[in-house]
Amino acid sequence: MNEEKILTKHPQGKNGKNINKQTYNLFKDALLKILSNYELTHGELMKQINLKLKDKFSGSISWYAETVKLDLEARKIIERIDSKPQKYRLKQ
Question: Which domains does the chain have, with CATH numbers?
């Protein structure tokens, strides 16, 4: 049986990645839920996503989280805030 795939986007126009749509949605939902409550640095965001998905996903959480985060940035769903240190939030 063929798995449905999604081609992710990159905010700098680089090539995206073809990933399983179910996996994409798992990471997208987790990232959006985490960022609905907080503005987080990259490190804080990766720590939260690892805590949230460690029992639900057996692959490389950091790789998928980064890929989906970049896609959400490219789609203007989340954004980087120009602060020190740089943080991420839901696009307002």
Answer: 5-9+16-90 (1.10.10.10)
